Known about the structure:
The structure holds 2 protein chains of 2 kinds.
Chain A: H1 9-18, H2 22-61, E1 64-68, E2 71-75, H3 80-86, H4 89-122, H5 127-139, H6 142-153, H7 159-166, H8 178-207, H9 210-218, H10 223-251, H11 255-260, H12 272-282, H13 286-319
Antiparallel strand pairs in A: 1-2
Chain B: H1 6-26, E1 45-51, H2 61-72, E2 76-82, H3 87-99, E3 107-111, H4 115-121, H5 133-136, E4 148-149, E5 152-153, E6 156-161, E7 163-168, H6 169-174, H7 183-195, E8 201-204, H8 211-223, H9 241-255, H10 268-276, E9 280-286, H11 288-293, E10 304-307, E11 320-322, E12 324-330, H12 337-347, H13 350-358, E13 363-364, H14 367-371, H15 373-376, H16 381-386, E14 389-391, H17 400-415, H18 421-436
Parallel strand pairs in B: 1-2, 1-3, 8-9, 11-14
Antiparallel strand pairs in B: 3-12, 4-5, 6-12, 6-13, 7-9, 7-10
Helix pairs in contact in B: 8-9, 8-17, 17-18
Amino acid sequence: MTVVDTRGPRETRAADGASRRPRRGAMRRSAARLGWGFASPALLLVFAVMIFPIGFSIAMSFSNVNVTGSGFQLNGFTGNNYSILFHSARYIHDLEFTAIYTVVTVTVEMILGTLIALVLERLTHARAWLMALLLLPWALITVVSAQLWSYIYNGVYGVFDAIMNAVGVHNLNVLGTPTQAAVAMGVADVWKTTPFVAIMVLAGLVMLPGEVVEAARIDGANGWQTFWKVRLPLLRPALAVAVMFRILQAFGLFDLPYVLTGGGPGTSTESLALLGYKVLFNDVLFGPGAAIAASTAFIVLVVCLLFLKVFRTQVGEQED
Amino acid sequence: MRILSNKRRNAATAVTAAAVLALSTACSSSSGSTAAPAATGSASGTITWFANQFGPTSTDVRKTLIAAFEKAYPNIKVNLEQAPSDSDTYRSTLITQISGGSSSFDVYNGDVVWPAQFGKQGLALPLNSYFDSSYWNTFSNGLVTSLTYKGSTYAVPLFTDNAFLFYRKDLLAKAHLPVPTTWEQLQSEAETLQKDNLVKYGFAAQFDSYEGLTCDFTEFAADAGGSTVSSDGTKATIDSPADTKALTYMRGLITSGVSPSAITTFQEQQSESLFTAGQVAFLRNWTYAYADSNGSTSKVAGDVGVVNLPSFAGQSSPGYSVTGGWNLYVNPHSKYLAADVDFLKWMTGTEAQTIIAEQGGEIPTVASVLQNSAVQATNPAFPVAAKNKLNARPSFVAQYSQVSEAIYNNVNAALSGSTSPSAALSAASSQIDTALQSNGL
């Protein structure tokens, strides 16, 4: 997902023009060779740290893996690892949990983040301070903030329990009850990542052409109509980027459940990434573990591509 | 916002395909070979001991042990490398390092439940050829069996750990109650203490969804006459009336209010801190809890008694304690085997085991040291440990981590009330069977 076509319109035109003017084309080709030359160390690095491990885990997911004292042995080609997954109630449950968790948290974060961005946009003096304050949860390492939340949710001496006791709700066992634990995790997630969405949307808001909004006002649109019919559609690119980043991160959810619930009670808050970790490193089942990792990556890739396609179609319709 | 231009997409596909191909051929070439056994006694060199801290937090027993060893073996130097304290994190570190061929450490500490898994995957060196039978006979009963997988012994026992019932002497005296010997008695006494407003909760243990719950459940199940896996390791035995009785009792502790509902998120530390804060009358915990609860940060220091765990009424007393503790393993890639063996031998000898017992507060694995009256006098838990009825977790199967997950995930779900005890045990049973047949998650 990191390789993005960054060619602007002018470059594209130049490239098209190149086919009509061979001499400039030759120059461009030699420049391109030079460019590849300069880029190759970086590309090698990308290959070593990204493509190699991804390829390795895909290869692993399709073979019988023996872990021995002297390394991994990948034997044969098999679909068995995937068949194990699709017959496992635990994998199906974790997939459902991760999907629902992603949809709910990303939706809430997008709505809250957009609202916060709209407020921030109106502010003049305090904006910088507020933004710095808002970014604190985002800047905290998740393991640390999850540990803080686990103190808050602690069933014996936690602040949350104390507050609930004070209002007359006793024996609440937040992290020990499936639904409550999932909601508690979602709250911690929203607390941490809403600022990220707010900043992304705010950046989009600041970039909006002021004339369009002004024109809408002159045409008699009220604030609500201006937002809903003019500004929100124009904000789409910024929103899309924010949603993409959030889906990618939320689907790979690991550190929050690892620290907060360990996937419990039972396996009710176990995400796919957490399952993959347990299968790989506790059970030393590298084949199925790699299949979990590869299938998770595949699912999130497909979701993001679909999302982008739908999004682009909508924008296209708008432009027509 | 186009994701990939066509050309680049093709290039990326080609590169990935090439990588996959290269890997599948490159990674199947390695095979292990072990060095010949080395003579011991005259070894020299510098070895690295990868170990997490054990014993009290105030002094580092590992350093005391190393200093004493280097005095006894001046030609060998030992570097201490700090290992992660969390057992699962530690295991994943070991697996990735050793299977990656690392020889950055020679000897490592490992959990008592690891020998089968590590033996099967070749992550630990088989040690039979380095020690004779008189050496293995020095250890307490049953310990050596737990180190053995398919006839090979993969570790030496460094220290062992037992579970105990810790109780508040002052509260029992105030209410004129005896120390409970059955679980039923413990529950009714706890209810009395709570009703008299002497204490907030009755009983704390480790009911979170993790390895500690497998320990606790194994004890309750054994007390009720049940087990989790058949003795030949081929099938689950957890879906039985005895196991159901044990789990129903555990759930009843929560529904009756004897245990806080948050107990389903308790590991050792949470249960112990509730006890040392004076909020609970009875605690199931490991050996170190005696020193901790009588230490300077404890509100109940001086009021804590320690006995064997209770059993269920009608069963023989005392109840079962699982064996915990840590072993010493040798990295199969170690280049200093002779020195490693000397180190292992000394660490499981009288001098080191006495240091571990007296300064580390851990139960020594060498029988003669545990029975020594001078050693027993240093810790009231040691004489109790000598009377403990021990029961191992089913760690003799190589799929133990999956078996344990099946136990603690389902038992925890039943304890939190999201499923019934019988449904949880039948789910655990089928998951254990799947794991033992090695054909699923």
